[in-house]
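Quick question about two entries, pasted in order.
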Amino acid sequence: MKNMLLDLYLTFLKIGSLTVGGGYAMLPMMQGELVSYRQWITDEELLDYYAVGQSTPGIIAINVATFVGYKQRGVVGGIIATLGIITPSIVVITALAGLISSIDEYPLVQKAMKGINVAVCALITDATLNFIRKTLKGIFSFLILAMSFSLIYFFKVPSYAIVSGAAVTGIVIYLIQKRRAK
């Protein structure tokens, strides 16, 4: 039990320490660590956790860490995983709080941040394409993807509305399919 709690803390400490850019930027690392390497959850569960994390209050990465920790070791596991994911941010924010206004004016820092942003974008794109390949399982999935993208990109519909609408659509499709099967 104690080893698993330590493992949860260290895993999420690693994820929180080695990713820059927030919850979506953590997606590739979470997929690698939690799904592929540790096999604590499946790709589908990770996507579900991201969807729920997106539609609930709070930071997505923290919500996902809490869900994974809870799945592994209940409430205590959720707390430990959450502490692991937030520790690096607390340390860095505390250390840089006084410096942030003075260092962002340096051209070298600005260039480094631009490079980091491009790399994070590439990582998010790769993770997104991998999840698309694994989750598009029919015409309805593709239509929900296309409609969601269009509503977000062209009409600036808030993500919580997209997630809620997709959840309702998924439930309706399931009920229709279940009814037809009878």
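Here is the second entry:
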Amino acid sequence: MIQTTTPSVEGQTITEYLGVVTGEAILGANIVRDLFAGIRDIVGGRSAAYEEELRKAREIAMEELAAEASDRGADAVVGIDLDYETVGQGGSMLMVTASGTAVRLGA
């Protein structure tokens, strides 16, 4: 499944638009990771724990996006947009939403 943020696939013709497809992932952050992330925020540097959670959430959202597109008979998803949010009490959960347009490609 071709997945791209661009509105088209280079060298391919879009023959049919199959509609908007989405994928979402919400992951809770571990309290121990929160503690260490807070300490890291105070002393500076990157929070590897949060980066890993965001990476996992993005992969899940993209897999769901591709699965929905495949169910519709798509060859590709174009115009993909990724959104990142914190949700829950005190932003305790990480949410990633992926959306795009499922399409069929011609020769």
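Reply: The first strand starts at residue 2 and ends at 3. The beta strands are 2-3, 13-28, 76-87, 93-106. Hope that helps.
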